[in-house]
Design goal:
- By secondary structure, this protein is an all-beta fold.
- The protein has one domain.
- Helices cover 0% and strands 52% of the residues.
- It has no helices and four strands.
- It has a four-stranded mixed sheet, with no helix packed on it.
- β3 and β4 form a beta hairpin.
């Protein structure tokens, strides 16, 4: 990904699931910058700050979820 200034910006995706069992809500989130270079294992418990954005294009609505901060929690 390239910023408006032409700089390279790391981008990855992560799938986060709320606590609450098999039917808890899940979110597919974009992760940008230095946070995109961090790796998490499936099943790790984390606390995350998410930004939700909804936009319209050609009469269709889309939701964009970005993880702003992710912190590993120790059991």
């Amino acid at each position: 990904m390239t910023t408006q200034k032409g700089e390279q910006l790391a981008k990855s995706y992560i799938r986060l699931k709320e606590l609450g069992g098999d039917y808890a809500d899940e979110y597919s989130c974009a992760v940008l910058g230095n946070l995109a270079q961090c790796r998490f294992q499936a099943g790790e418990t984390v606390a995350a700050t998410l930004r939700f954005r909804i936009f319209e294009n050609n009469g269709n609505s889309y939701q964009d979820v970005t993880a702003i901060d992710i912190v590993k929690l120790h059991p």
